[in-house]
Amino acid sequence: MYCPQKHYWQVLKKSLFKKKYTSQVAQNATILGIETSCDDTGCAVIDVTGKILGESLHSQNAIHVRYGGVNPLIAHELHRKNIEFAVSEALDSSKLTIDDVDAIAITTRPGLFMSLQVGVKYAKYLARKHSKPLIPIHHMEAHALAVRISQDIPFPFLVLLISGGHCLLAVVKDVEDYYLLGESIDNSPGEMLDKAARRMKLKNIPAYSQIAGGKSIELAASECKDPSLFKFPLPLAKYRDCNFSFSGLKDSLERKLIKKEFDHGIEGDGIIPEVNDLCAAFQLAIAEHISHRTERAVLFCERNNLLAGNKNIVVSGGVACNDFIFKSVGVIANKLGYKVYRPLPRLCTDNGVMIAWNGIEKLRIQCGLTPDIAISAIEPKSPLGKSLINEVKEANIPVRVTRLKKLYN
Ligand code: KG4
Ligand code: ZN
User: Fold this and answer.
1) How close is the Cα of 168 to the center of ligand 2, in Å?
2) How many structural domains compose the chain?
3) Which ligand is closest in space to the CA of residue 213?
4) Ligand 1 pocket by Cβ (under 6 Å)
5) What is the pLDDT of residues 142-161, one digit of tens each?
6) Fewest CB within 10 A of the end CB: N or C in the chain?
7) Which residue puts its alpha carbon closest to atom 22 of ligand 1?
8) Domain at 190, CATH number
């Protein structure tokens, strides 16, 4: 594969840094990864085999949950407060110093500008002070590749990324090479689950007060008595593409809640008695929509031989922690003769390990190293790879939705 960084790599090897970046170093490399794209300050030190030598994670979730979404100003302040400590913690737990690290991988895109800026500035400072190269990382690529830390999944594979900031289907052709097949035309599933949890006032239930909205909906749904009590429409049913839409489900939830609250005379902090059934039906609707689009993506890949005969689907991003949604994709995978994988749940949500790992993957193919990163290289929006969304639309592949209520039994 042509890599414009290769020449640069040679320059680095010869003179730029104290340590020689020979391929032998690449085989024994240790990378510090820093993630600050949204509301988690995550750092990790890992080696080339994917062994996690040390890590730290400062989650701001308990604070943002009060606002029903991430508050960018608060996220910025907390990253600033935590970044130095988070890096030291990861290094201390690995029993290494910054001098033992070969390069610093840092998320530069996409994400909240002010959050990204804190990580990038700190990484630049460390790189300058300790003469280390930097490796800029695309947050979604890091989610897509995180599974390869622990499981040997060859390229190419299909990835479904479902998180608080994104929803997309893509072919991962190689470390730096992606085809985008579909994306959300409005909200992300995580954002919508968080808003729905807030609207259902789940945080007033003590067991759910400190956890992410999506997680609380999953827990409440697991207590349901009748997942058929509420019915949601299937989004984008008439559109034969792989895009997603969640805003209609959110509006439908709102109408159902207003009616039930009225019926029961509920005001203020009160919660409707059918809340578990509502969570179950809502989660089911999301799972069926996501699985429906994923099935079309697999069929499109097969028609165009995009997966070179590999039959692997990877699910990643915070919402991939949801066992019901993961199992739903598993039903589709099974039907089509595919296997479905996800990173360890703690590596599905934002973390420093996946950033460090992406650095390792780039180092192995000798791509992506740079002595400096301009602040202008921080990109709040950054599409993943080459878009094939129009080609998917033109293929016009019919897919009958698979109903997944049976997974509640
Ligand atoms: O990947 P992530 O940590 O951050 C982004 O890049 O967005 O994803 C966070 C999202 C939140 O919206 C959270 O509610 C959701 O992941 N999430 C879950 C679960 N755990 C976290 N959603 C559904 N079920 C879960 N168990
Ligand atoms: Zn993420």
Assistant:
1) 12
2) 2
3) 1
4) 38, 163-165, 190, 193-194, 212-215, 218, 317-319, 321-322, 349-350
5) 999 999 999 999 999 999 99
6) C
7) 214
8) 3.30.420.40
**In the predicted model, is pLDDT for residue 386 greater than 90?**
yes
Check whether residue 175 and residue 285 sit in a common domain: yes
Nearest to 132 by CA among 54, 51, 30: 30
What pTM did the predictor assign?
0.92
Instruction: Give the contacts of 306 (CB within 8 A, at least 6 positions apart).
Output: 156, 171, 173, 179, 300
User: Does 162 lie in the same domain as 144?
Assistant: no
CA dihedral for 117, 191, 316, 50, sign (positive or negative): positive
Reported as a single tens digit per residue, the pLDDT across 159-209 is 999 998 899 999 999 999 999 999 999 999 999 999 999 999 999 999 998
Q: What does the mean pLDDT of the chain come to?
A: 92
Q: Give the per-residue pLDDT at 33.
A: 98
Task: Quote the ligand 2 centre to 141 CA distance (angstroms).
Answer: 10
**Residue 257 host element (H or E):** helix 247-264
In terms of residue numbers, what domain contains 112?
Answer: 4-150+348-378
Query: Do both 206 and 282 map to the same domain?
Result: yes
Instruction: Say how many Å lie between the CA of residue 195 and the centre of ligand 1.
Output: 12
Same domain? For 176 and 129 the reply is no
